[in-house]
Amino acid sequence: MDFAWTAAQSSLNKKIAEFAQNELGHDLAARDRGQIFDSAGWLRCGAMGLTGLCAPAEYGGGGHDPLDMLAALEGLGYGCRDNGLNFSIGAHLWGCVTPLYLFGTPKQKEYFLPRLSSGEWIGALAASEADAGSDINNIQTSATPSAQGYILNGHKIMITNAPIGHVFIVLARLEGKSENKSVCAFLIEKDTPGLQVGPSLEKMGLRTAMMSEIHLQNCHVPRENLLGAEGGGTIIFLQAMEWERGLILAPALGTMQRQLQVCQARVRQRRQFGQAIGQFQRVADKIVDMHMRLESSRFFIRKFAWLKSKKRMAQLEASAAKLHTSEAWIHTSQAALEIHGGMGYITENEIERDLRDALGSRIYSGTSEIQRQIIAQWLA
Ligand SMILES: Cc1cc2nc3c(=O)[nH]c(=O)nc-3n(C[C@H](O)[C@H](O)[C@H](O)COP(=O)(O)OP(=O)(O)OC[C@H]3O[C@@H](n4cnc5c(N)ncnc54)[C@H](O)[C@@H]3O)c2cc1C
Fold it and tell me: 332 in helix, strand or coil?
């Protein structure tokens, strides 16, 4: 494993960071307040190849190696302060584009992937339900076989990108099949009769990423919209989660780098008791810990990307990357707030938003407790 980026990866990282700094994150404070998604910014990300980063080139994607994707996403997080937009891109890439290119039929890939890769369409993964959160095997949404395909009934909650999405991968349980072979994944377009997207939910953080419930009432899904095999939904979900846990926080590496730089400047410039606050060991320790957390998170995520670039399974590493980086980002965001003192707590200074945004990372894609449980299954 090489810790240095190749010249091409460095240039991709720089190109995306500059693009993001110049083109994204405008009016962020107002959009955060109003819970407004940056649709123009999304399309600009599409034009830069970010919404198709992981899709094969033949379907309009970047056809990138996982380490290249990491270089691009770290650049995105560095340049784009809109963590909600970065998160929406992650949900789209790992929850929808990835399962589609891994399990889709040629016809499904030809139809969906170019639209998703260009950013014209937005994708989402609808798995969670009222009684199926951490216990995702307890999905109750039903799929009843019909002459043309399946009829779905159920209710999905907390679905990122649902209010703005064009296609949803919906997990449902096939009636009449044994428990462990019954979960299926379906590709459902937003205008399909019987599918209803609820209003946007208000959240404490990631407020510029849209989230809502999805209701399915006698929703007819044609057979050709089954993704993968009948009963293959659990495998599809696990593979999507491996990628998502491994790379959903890749932008947070760039964010933590930026937070560190902002705090370094602050502790050199802000004076109390006649000296720069960075001269106080207890303040300097916060900067040291920010650096340690950033570098250790980089190691976990880069190891995951390196294993995937070698086409190896990396479920333990994915959970470790997610667990470690989510905790690191939260602690770093809290330290950044404290280093700025009272000014860090004032919303208009745009320091506290990162902490609100970071807190959700302990919950989505499986909570920290669930990541520990997965790691323990491999190790203990
Ligand atoms: C910002 C955000 C975006 C999301 N996006 C999506 C999305 O796009 N698609 C989607 O399908 N879902 C999405 N979710 C839902 C998310 O996947 C679930 O919230 C998450 O899996 C936890 O499930 P739960 O909320 O039902 O909590 P619960 O499962 O009820 O857990 C509550 C608490 O109990 C703990 N717990 C539960 N079981 C165990 C156990 N066995 N051992 C130890 N502790 C346990 C949990 O760790 C947690 O602390 C999103 C959530 C958030 C916050």
Answer: helix
Unique residue bearing structure tokens 């057979």 = 223
SS3 of 219, please? strand
**Cβ contacts of 350 within 8 Å, gap of 6 or more:** 28, 29, 81
Question: 167 — phi, psi (to 5°)?
Answer: -145, 140
Is the separation of the CB atoms in 91 and 97 below 8 Å? Answer: no
Residue 249 CB neighbours (<10 A): 30
Stated pTM of the model: 0.98
Q: How far apart are the CA of 212 and the centre of ligand 1, in A? A: 15
214 lines ligand 1 (CB under 6 A): no
- Is the CB of residue 88 below 6 angstroms from any atom belonging to ligand 1? no
pLDDT digits (tens, 9 = 90+) for 93-129: 999 999 999 999 999 999 999 999 999 999 999 999 9
Residues forming the active site: 244
Complete domains list, the chain, with CATH:
7-122 (1.10.540.10), 124-232 (2.40.110.10), 236-379 (1.20.140.10)
Q: Whose CA is nearest to atom 6 of ligand 1?
A: 159
**Is ligand 1 within 6 A of the CB of residue 96?**
no
If you measure from the C-alpha of residue 136 to the centroid of ligand 1, how many angstroms do you get, rounded to a whole number? 9
Helix 66-79 and helix 83-92, axial crossing angle in degrees, nearest 10: 160
